[in-house]
Amino acid sequence: EPEVTQTPSHQVTQMGQEVILRCVPISNHLYFYWYRQILGQKVEFLVSFYNNEISEKSEIFDDQFSVERPDGSNFTLKIRSTKLEDSAMYFCASKNMGLSGITDTQYFGPGTRLTVL
Amino acid sequence: AQSVTQPDIHITVSEGASLELRCNYSYGATPYLFWYVQSPGQGLQLLLKYFSGDTLVQGIKGFEAEFKRSQSSFNLRKPSVHWSDAAEYFCAVGDLYTNQKVTFGTGTKLQVIP
After folding, report:
1. Hey, of B8, B97, B99, B108, which one would you mutate to test binding to chain A, going by the most A CBs within 10 A of its CB?
2. Between B43, B94, B98, which is nearest A111 by CB?
3. CA within 13 Å, CB half, B3
4. B55 FRET partner, CA 20 to 30 A, in A9, A16, B33, B86?
5. 8 Å CB contact between B43 and B58
6. Which residues does chain A have within 8 Å of residue B52's beta carbon, measured at their own beta carbons?
7. What would the pLDDT profile of B11-44 be if each residue is shown by its tens digit?
């Protein structure tokens, strides 16, 4: 069964450094998302991406964050200058167009645990 | 704005006992409802989903959920819990007709005792 993959599984970085989290969505999916989960808290939406542009973003997704689909398979989240509070599990998700006007389910990757020291 | 409430932060049940995890949602349009499970240090696995039809939906691992529009609820149930069901369970709501984000509840952590 196809699945969303994410690399690395764990990233440790120093405060102020740039990090890039990588995701490979399911191959025929068209919509891509990033979510994060701070330890012990709920999963929060960051950004959605369709047709090579951001379609929605949350308040969390400020100028320090960016997303890109550099080729036909990868979807990346970049944090330009990491802060301690960026430490979290970051989940990538993707979904297909859906049928008969009804949207499809988002499928989540295993996550990347980001630790900012 | 859409929101999801899971009133139970932590639930402990004995192995073999029945389980019900509560979920209430607030959504102005037609909701698309989900339950995900997360084992420690792991990602989110879809248990089941509901968007139309029979209000009792069956999922993986023997779980089921019942949609009650009048109560804005989507409670998750399992008749007999196994030790391997210990995990955190998230209820979530999305929009049925758009590609917007999914909004998650705060989760219910399930502990299973022998």
Report:
1. B99
2. B43
3. 5
4. B86
5. no
6. 102
7. 999 999 999 999 999 987 778 899 999 988 778 8
